[in-house]
């Protein structure tokens, strides 16, 4: 997978920061077969980390049942306009992606 992006937005809504993340990834479960009937090996995001101003605020573990191009939406407390939210992931092949956004 070449450089598939993470699309990330963070916005203040009252006292919380709402974060939306779209992670481009095929997320193969290992259960499907190709056109010749051979199993397609499992390949999926397994670890996701979220930071606020460089401090860890959320960690997630994904498995093979998460859908292609996962979308997350969650709220954080303690952020303010201009702070940076970062998201990074690692998949089962060791590939990594990360992105940052400024809270609007």
Automatic annotation (TrEMBL):
- Tell me the protein's name: Thiosulfate oxidation carrier complex protein SoxZ
Q: Which residues form the Sulphur oxidation protein SoxZ domain?
A: 9-101
| Gene3D superfamilies referenced in this protein's UniProt entry, alphabetically | Immunoglobulins
Entry-linked Pfam families = SoxZ
Give the matching NCBIfam families.
Answer: SoxZ_true
Q: Which InterPro entries is this protein grouped with?
A: Ig-like_fold, Ig_E-set, SoxZ, SoxZ_dom
């Amino acid at each position: 997978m070449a450089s598939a992006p993470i699309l990330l937005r963070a916005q203040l809504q009252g006292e919380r920061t709402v974060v939306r993340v779209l992670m481009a990834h095929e997320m193969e479960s290992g259960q499907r077969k190709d056109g010749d009937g051979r199993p397609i090996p499992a390949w999926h995001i397994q670890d996701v980390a979220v930071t606020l101003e460089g401090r860890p605020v959320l960690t997630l573990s994904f498995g093979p049942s998460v859908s292609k191009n996962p979308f997350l939406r969650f709220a954080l407390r303690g952020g303010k306009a201009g702070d940076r939210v970062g998201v990074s992931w690692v998949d089962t092949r060791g590939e990594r992606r990360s992105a940052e956004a400024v809270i609007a």
